[in-house]
Amino acid sequence: MSECIFCKIVEGSIPSHKVFEDAHTYAFLDIFPANRGHTLVIPKKHCKDIFEADHATYSAVAGTAKAVAELLNSKLEPEGVTIFQMNREAGWQSVFHLHMHVIPRWNQDQLHKPWDIAAATDSDLSQVMEQLAK
């Protein structure tokens, strides 16, 4: 039996508030919501993160995230939506089963951007492009 909490949710040994389910994905309300309606979308088969997921699995999760966003939009009528998908500890991932956060947003909610925007220099961009071309 897997020790992964999300795998246990999929198998039904841990209860959840299911929002959506299909053959490949499962979506449920986050028990530590950033906002009302905050939903997690996961693949039913375990994969740790984007790097372990095959293209079909990641596509299924992204497709379900869109369907969930549309459901939340029609039923909760938010003024926006934020979708996050984090990988590895340095990328803010805390549960190591691939998942997307679909978070309804309202103009006066208390959420804020996780980073400050600053323009890159041409030199910085050129260095990245050189590394990508190798």
Question: Can you offer a commentary on this structure?
Answer:
Strand 1 (18-21) and strand 2 form a beta hairpin. The longest helix is centred in the middle third of the chain and has 22 residues, at 55-76. This protein has helices at residues 5-11, 55-76, 122-133, and strands at residues 18-21, 25-29, 39-43, 80-84, 100-105. It has a single domain, classed as HIT family, subunit A. Helix content is 31%, strand content 19%.
In short:
This protein has helices spanning 5-11, 55-76, 122-133, and strands at 18-21, 25-29, 39-43, 80-84, 100-105. It is α+β, with helices and mostly antiparallel strands and 134 residues long. It has a single domain, classed as 2-Layer Sandwich (HIT family, subunit A).
Question: Descriptors for this entry?
Answer:
single chain, 134 residues, alpha+beta, HIT family, subunit A, five-stranded antiparallel sheet, 3 helices, 31% helix
